[in-house]
């Protein structure tokens, strides 16, 4: 069901000079400049929010603000039209706020965690699906009753989705071309001694502004020529449609082969079977839609292509079933993790699309696409709502995973040494850390030591993977740093601040380290499996820093420019020092 357009065409509008596809969209010559300016400012603000050193503490509010600025700007420039532009502004700000909330929660969820986690990508998916839905509703709705999404014309919705993809990809390509051009111009002026452009390119703030301006300007230009974009979109769909028979034939052979080989070889392949099946399913849906087009008049008239689209639509279901079985096997073996929960959700979505394809073919057979289009529209709306819901901090996948993994540990399904302590410390959020604190108080010494080791780790790379830990290493790791460092020569004493600095060294966490005092304010650190590292006292009281390529305990040679015709040149033996362990030299000699 479709609705009439909300805004009638203006009388005597200059359509003869317009390159717009929709008769209701008047030319907007200033659009490229406005969009370029908006994105340039957004790029600068984004840089100011994310620009900080690695040593600075995490600031979730800055990450959230950066996400708000970036998402709002991109969604606005992609979806705005001069008519109902305030709708586009409200839509962009709403999704910017949602993504900011998601980023803020993700940034503070895990210890040292990145804001770019699974909820963030779920939110991005919701934005990508919601944008063409909004554009379609804006075009045809008589008012702002957005709950009537199911009554939108499919052809316009499908066209918006493909157009947004083409324009977005073209905009990103234009950004790359722009940087290449500016770099070449900078090198050209460098030849005559003018380095202004080269210096600007070295500044990250300029790079973000340039990228924003290029992307916004490109989107603005293409939106003003969407007739040309529509032609490009059709070309892309035609090219993709040609690939449909290839994938359809491959899927038929693959599924028939499974009847003889069984599924066991899929589990033994050493690759994520579920991920591969889901990826192929997504590609099958993409190619099937390229063939069936926006409507009956737009679908391919080639019977081979149309038959291939039917095969692809139906093949999604068995692929999703294989993915589901693979996920079930994996979960039975290793339990729940946030990644596996997201995987199960993805499998559910694939099953829904597979069932829709089979139902459409069963209902209309040759005209299966007529029944498939409204089902896909409903699925798209449901996918947007589901992705937005899952991205929000409502369900705690880390808590679910923590309960399951701790239950497996306590039941004996997994031993303490094979347990994934790093996941509990760094992947399962606050619930994982609380569980570690309880396990650290366990009466079982081995389990308690491993939990204390995980709690003391500053990052997940200080811990080993499941099955790689050793109870002795964990018991050693929880000892004070003073007991883990051997000081040489005998009788030498290290200042307390040196032990504080060494407490951050992952090399000394699970194995003994030896520190050889070379002189006042200079030491050599010897750790298992690595060359010696040299540390010197810093200029600030209590500071120790690593010395790279600097001679220790000797005067630095003075840089001179001697007269080689009169200078005294001689060969002298130079005494150097080198560390020996069990009589064998380690590392390079030093002065």
UniProtKB/TrEMBL annotation:
- What keywords appear on the UniProt entry? Membrane, Transmembrane, Transmembrane helix
Tree of life domain: Bacteria
- The keyword Transferase is annotated on this UniProt entry: no
Q: Which residues cross the membrane?
A: 33-50, 62-80, 87-106, 118-135, 161-185, 205-223, 235-259, 271-292, 304-329, 341-362, 374-395
Q: What is this protein called?
A: DUF4153 domain-containing protein
| InterPro entries, alphabetized | DUF4153 (IPR025291)
Tell whether Transferase is among the UniProt keywords.
no
Pfam families of this UniProt entry? DUF4153
């Amino acid at each position: 069901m479709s609705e009439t357009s909300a805004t009638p065409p203006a009388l005597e509008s200059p359509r003869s000079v317009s390159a717009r596809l929709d008769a209701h969209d008047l030319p907007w010559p200033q659009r490229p400049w406005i969009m370029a300016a908006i994105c340039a400012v957004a790029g600068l603000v984004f840089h100011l929010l994310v620009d900080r050193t690695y040593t600075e503490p995490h600031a979730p509010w800055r990450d959230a603000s950066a996400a708000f600025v970036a998402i709002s700007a991109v969604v606005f420039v992609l979806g705005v039209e001069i008519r109902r532009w305030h709708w586009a502004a409200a839509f962009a700000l709403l999704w910017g706020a949602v993504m900011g909330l998601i980023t803020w929660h993700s940034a503070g969820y895990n210890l040292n965690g990145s804001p770019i986690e699974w909820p963030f990508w779920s939110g991005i998916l919701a934005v990508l699906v919601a944008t063409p839905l909004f554009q379609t509703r804006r075009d045809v709705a008589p008012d702002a009753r957005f709950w009537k999404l199911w009554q939108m014309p499919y052809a316009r919705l499908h066209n918006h989705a493909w157009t947004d993809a083409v324009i977005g990809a073209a905009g990103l390509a234009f950004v790359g071309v722009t940087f290449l051009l500016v770099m070449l111009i900078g090198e050209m002026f460098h030849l005559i001694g003018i380095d202004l452009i080269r210096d600007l390119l070295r500044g990250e703030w300029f790079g973000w502004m340039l990228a924003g301006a290029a992307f916004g300007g490109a989107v603005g230009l293409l939106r003003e020529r969407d007739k040309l974009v529509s032609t490009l979109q059709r070309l892309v769909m035609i090219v993709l449609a040609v690939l449909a028979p290839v994938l359809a034939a491959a899927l038929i052979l693959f599924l028939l082969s499974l009847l003889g080989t069984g599924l066991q070889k899929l589990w033994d392949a050493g690759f994520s079977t579920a991920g591969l099946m889901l990826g192929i399913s997504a590609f099958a849906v993409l190619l099937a839609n390229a063939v069936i087009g926006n409507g009956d008049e737009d679908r391919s008239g080639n019977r081979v292509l149309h038959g291939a689209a039917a095969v692809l639509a139906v093949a999604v279901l068995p692929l999703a079933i294989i993915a589901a079985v693979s996920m079930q096997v994996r979960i039975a073996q290793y339990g729940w993790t946030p990644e596996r929960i997201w995987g199960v959700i993805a499998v559910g979505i694939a099953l829904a699309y597979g069932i829709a394809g089979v139902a459409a073919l069963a209902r209309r057979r040759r005209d299966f696409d007529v029944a498939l289009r409204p089902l896909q529209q409903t699925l798209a709306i449901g996918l947007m709502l589901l992705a937005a819901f899952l991205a929000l901090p409502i369900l705690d996948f880390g808590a679910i995973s923590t309960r399951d993994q701790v239950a497996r540990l306590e039941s004996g399904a997994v031993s303490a040494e094979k347990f994934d302590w790093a996941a509990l410390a760094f992947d399962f959020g606050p619930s994982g850390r609380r569980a570690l604190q309880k396990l650290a108080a366990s009466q079982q010494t081995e389990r308690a030591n491993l939990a204390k080791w995980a709690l003391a780790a500053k990052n997940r790379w200080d811990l080993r993977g499941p099955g790689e830990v050793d109870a002795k290493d964990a018991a050693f790791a929880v000892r004070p740093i003073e007991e883990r460092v051997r000081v040489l020569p005998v009788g030498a004493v290290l200042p307390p601040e040196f032990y504080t600095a060494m407490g951050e060294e992952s090399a000394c966490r699970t194995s003994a380290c030896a520190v050889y005092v070379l002189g006042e304010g200079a030491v050599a650190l010897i750790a298992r499996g690595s060359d010696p590292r040299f540390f010197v006292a810093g200029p600030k009281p209590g500071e120790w820093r690593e010395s790279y390529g600097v001679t220790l305990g000797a005067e630095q040679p003075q840089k001179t420019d001697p007269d080689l015709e009169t200078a005294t040149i001689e060969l002298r033996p130079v005494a150097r020092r080198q560390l020996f362990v069990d009589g064998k030299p380690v590392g390079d000699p030093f002065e």
